[in-house]
Amino acid sequence: MHLRSAPEHSCTQTRPQTRSRPGGGDHEVRLTLCFAGAGTHVTASEAVSDRKESIIASTDVTMTGDRLDLTAVLHRRSTGKLAEPGPDDATLAAMLEVACTAPDHGKLRPWRFIVLRDAALEDLGASFARAQAAKTPDASDTELESSAAKARRAPVIVTVVGRTTPHPKVQPWEQLVAAGCAAQNLCIAATAYGFGSMWRTGWLAEHPEVLAHLGVGERERVVGFIYLGTVVDGFTPAPRELDTSCVTWRDGSMPETAAKTPPR
User: Fold this and answer.
1) Cα(45)–Cα(144) distance, rounded to whole angstroms?
2) Domain residues of the chain, as ranges?
3) Cα dist. 131→5, 34, 100, 127, 156 in Å?
4) In 3-state terms, what secondary structure has residue 26?
C-alpha cells in the first residue's frame, strides 16, 4: 500500500461555544477541527443552522442530551442526486465535530478534511480532467468534460484524508480504518442535519494529478470524497435489514430478538 506523507495543514481550536440544538436547549462544546486546501478555511459560528428539513420519512431526527439518537444511523443512505443548498459553515463545523468522534487508538488523529465549495469544486474538476487525459491520452473533449463534471454533483465535497504516523502499537491499516470511521460519522451527521451524502472513491482518489492538486502527502491517502447537499425529491431509501449470514454466534444459535430488524 503506497502512502503519502502529510504536508503542512492548519488546525484550528476554538474556545468553548454554546450551541442551540434542534428541539430547543443549549449545550456547550469545544471544537478542534483541521482544515486544509488553498483558500479553504471554515470557522464555527456561535449557533448551528436552524434547518428543519430531513430526508427521513415520517421520523424526525432528535437529540437526547448531547447525543444523536440512532435514527440518523438507521436512515443513512448513499444519495447520488444532491442539490443546493449544502450545509453552511456552522453546520459543517458541527458535522466535522461528529466525524472526529471516530475511534482513535493512540490518539493519533489519523485524519484530516479538505472542504471544497464553489470555485474549489471547479478546480477539483479540472484536476479530474487532467487525470483523465493522463490516463487516456486520446480522450475526447466530451469525456474530459464528463470527468470534470464529477466534481459538480453536489454543492459541497469534503475530502477525507487518512494520514498514518509510525507507532509501535497502532499499525497503518488501523489508522486508515479510523479515518474511514470518521468518514462514516460525517455521513451520519449529514443525515442528522437533514442533508444527503454520497461516499465516492474510484481511481481518481489515487491518481497523482488529483493527489498533487489536493496536497495529499506521501504517508496519506484519500479515504473518500464525501458529497453533501440537499436530497432531490423522489429519492427512495433502499431497505436495510440485518443479514444474519454475516453474524456468527459462538455461544449458540442466534437469539430470537437478534433475528428481528430494529424498527425504522
Assistant:
1) 39
2) 33-40+66-234
3) 21, 27, 30, 6, 21
4) strand
CA atoms within 13 A on the CB side of 113: 30
C-alpha cell at 77: 443512505
List the grid coordinates of 20.
442551540
Fold of 33-40+66-234: NADH Oxidase (3.40.109)
d(CA 225, CA 198): 8
Q: In this structure, which amino acid lies at residue 105?
A: H
pTM, to two decimals:
0.71
pLDDT in tens, 52-87: 343 334 334 444 555 547 777 777 887 888 989 999
- In terms of Cα–Cα distance, which of 234, 247, 155, 153 is closest to 200? 153
Query: Distance between alpha carbon 125 and the CA centroid of its chain, in Å?
Result: 19
As a whole number of angstroms, the distance between CA 178 and CA 188 comes to 15
